[in-house]
Amino acid sequence: MATSPHRITDAPEPYNSPKSDIILRSSDGVDFRFFKLLLSLASPFFSGMFDLPVAKDPAWEASSSEMEMKDGMVVVAVDENSQVLTALLGFVHPWKVPTFETLESSRVILQAADKYGMDDVTEAVEEALITSKFLDRRPSAVYALACTYKLEKAARAAAKLTLQHPMLFPFSPEVDHAPAAALYRLFAYRQACMKKVVEVTHILALRDAYVACKACPTATTLLSSVSVYQWLWDSVHHLTSRIQEVGFGGDVMQHVTVSWPVLANAMQCPTCKTKAMEIFSRFVQEVKRDIELEIRKVALEIKF
Ligand SMILES: [Zn+2]
């Protein structure tokens, strides 16, 4: 608990209710009028504090003599600043819609919730994270945050979405705080998923392995020892290289353009002219579905 050198001000609604019975003073000197019952239900830390037998406990008696009172209420000074306290109490107050504006603010709420043992707040923040814009926009940061505060559901949802980004995802303060083992497991998961992408695309390309053109060169695959159109094999390699480089965004079409130069060559061949587009179109339609199916089978190891 901290003491504050700041000029004391009062928090705005809903933290100024005349029916309140406790005041939480933030580290920057803002008094939040709140309710012991709500804090006790949300936090074993506060529950224990309010349950202390005032008259019988010498420690409490000693400290209570130094404890500040205001409007007949005990003032409890906390370490969190008013911004954090506003966000944290938003998850405890029954009439507030819990929310956070930035990922950083969700992190400080989780940190405070962990400190005060507010499990329901932690659970509510996890649900809010899963439906937030941050999951799509900054999945690696959400994964790191989820692993730091042991939020398995959010970690799994975020890990899958990191596949939409390059292997070396953007650095963030959340990544800085995450356990190294959790980041290692994410890399292992992403590597396994990318391996599946390559396997799926090769299997689909080999499905059209009959070569009925004497003009176009053929490729012989090392694994299956069958011949396949060189232009098809090359276009598949262009596509998988692109996905491995920038991530698999769930929409293969955005990466298909990398195969156009190879396909354009095939279109010059009188025999392959119509066949090339037909085979490649079928490949593109099926590859997205097959990649999605295979990635679902890849296990992400999570240990807290
Ligand atoms: Zn040909």
Automatic annotation (TrEMBL):
Transmembrane segments: none annotated. It comes from the Eukaryota. SUPFAM superfamilies: POZ domain. Pfam families: BTB. InterPro entries: BTB/POZ_dom, SKP1/BTB/POZ_sf. Residues 20-101 form the BTB domain. This is BTB domain-containing protein. It comes from Jaapia argillacea MUCL 33604.
